[in-house]
Amino acid sequence: MIFELSKTNSIANTYVAELRDETIQKDAMRFRYNLERIAAYFALEISKSMDYEQINVQTSLGMAPAVKLKEQPVLATILRAGLPMQQGLIQIFDRAPSAFITAYRKTHDNGIPEIMVDYVSTPDLTGKTLIMADPMLATGLSMVLCCKELLKRFKIKELHLVIAIASAAGVAYVREHLPEAKLWIGAVDADLDSKSYIIPGLGDAGDLAYGKKL
Residue limits of the Phosphoribosyltransferase domain (predicted)? Predict the structure, then answer.
């Protein structure tokens, strides 16, 4: 299942537009906030597909019927660029535990790049719904590798991927290698450049959110 935000009109499309705007991007706080808002929007959409139970709530004037989640999801992100989206998810699922994973690109002497995972911090994911957030899905290699690392360790009930901007190639790669995943994407762009940046994309999300790295 793929939900692409740009195919329907909503205020969240404005957040995506501001993420792309090179003038607005100069305000790092605004950039992070727009990532948060996109993730929060998707969290609300994901919540509609989850299981609930009936409860009664005591008010000052009587008893009111209500519903609550049967089980909290686990909110995961790929560091560092995914942190603002993690904040957006946790605004909605404010009682959910979190997981964090790092991935980086290593280029070997033969010039062939490899994605490496070197840090995983997670609660028990067995039988849980996992929501993984990352702003950019370029080639899809990092997302697939990180998810497969968690799937190797735990039998996850349901996997949701929350992404601001994706490439068509990245979406195809994820669909091939993570067919069980449900994708929630702000917009899908057609191309990648020679450095695997999404075109038109928005640039380097991590640098725009937190400053340029060495």
Answer: 11-211
Give 101's Cβ-side CA count (13 Å radius). 26
If one counts every other C-beta atom within 10 angstroms of the C-beta of residue 149, the result is 15
How far apart, in Å, are the Cα atoms of 165 and each of 106, 156, 186?
Answer: 23, 25, 6
Q: State CA 87 to chain mean position distance.
A: 11
180 CB-side CA count, 13 A: 12
Class of domain 2-51+69-210: alpha beta
- Rounded CA-CA distance 184/41 in Å is 10
Strand pairing report for 158-167 and 182-189: parallel
Q: Which helix (H) or strand (E) holds 47?
A: helix 28-47
Whole-prediction pTM: 0.92
In this predicted structure, what is the pLDDT of residue 207? 94
Q: Which of the residues in the chain have pLDDT under 50?
A: none
Helix (H, G, I), strand (E, B), or coil: what is residue 160?
A: strand
In the block, tokens 């928005």 appear at 202
Identify the pLDDT of residue 196.
Answer: 87
Q: Per-domain residue ranges for the chain?
A: 2-51+69-210
CA distance 174 to 16: 21
Residue from 48, 29, 7 nearest 186 by CA: 7
- Report residue 191: phi and psi, to 5°: -120, 160
Spatial separation of the C-alpha atoms in residues 119 and 73, rounded to whole Å: 21
